[in-house]
Amino acid sequence: MLHQSDTFSILYYMLLIPIQWKSAANQFLYPPEYQSHFSGLVLSHEKIRARIRELAALLHQHCQVHARARPLLVCTLKGACTFFVHLTEELQLLRQGFDVEFVRAKSYVGTESSGAVRLLLGQEDADGLEVLEHFKGRHVVLVEDILDTGTTLEKLVPVLHEKGQPASIQVVTLLDKRLKDGTEKKFKADFIGFSIPDVFIIGYGLDYNELYRDLRDIFVISQAGIEFDAKKLHDG
Ligand code: 5GP
Ligand code: MG
Fold first, then answer.
1. Average pLDDT, rounded, for the chain
2. How far is the CA of 85 from the centre of ligand 1 (A)?
């Protein structure tokens, strides 16, 4: 038989636990040095992971129906690194085989696309020319963090075709930025995780001058975040 005090404690915990759980779920985990560096949440880690599971299922289906061959997943460093890790994990759970490669593209200076894209692709041959020997005849899936104006992919994809001679290139991007009315994207992705507003975001691999890649969630950067001097974190 329950005592009145037991009934009270059961009621107390029934009420308290969901409240505590809810407040924990609303907390975002980030390094304390980033306090006040965000002005708003764009995507929580959980939401990102759920969508990546769906993207992996779409890719798996695509590989089975169209290519029928083992894809070569190409990660565009550094921003897409976190997305790449979680995407490949979901593909493993679907028993989808793949090979991996990495390329590096850099176009942003501060919060603005510089318009000029620097590419670092593969190895160099004896004549100093870049070679992409692993791409030949392969069905490539290029994994991007964010598609903004499309400048980077407009430059990168034809270079990969020309130097790598793959059978096909499909592009999967976690984020696709909505541009101002009437602005045409220079490149369109085949698979898109989320369409997001035209704001500068950080986290989940995406940086601002090399900071904030270590965030689990995706935020809008605040003025304090833009003005923060990253060197403060390096000098012990
Ligand atoms: P695009 O060449 O399409 O204009 O820009 C694509 C590249 O710019 C992305 O791969 C990413 O490196 C960078 N970028 C574009 N928008 C953002 C943003 O809001 N935040 C961050 N951190 N990088 C961005
Ligand atoms: Mg990128």
1. 85
2. 19
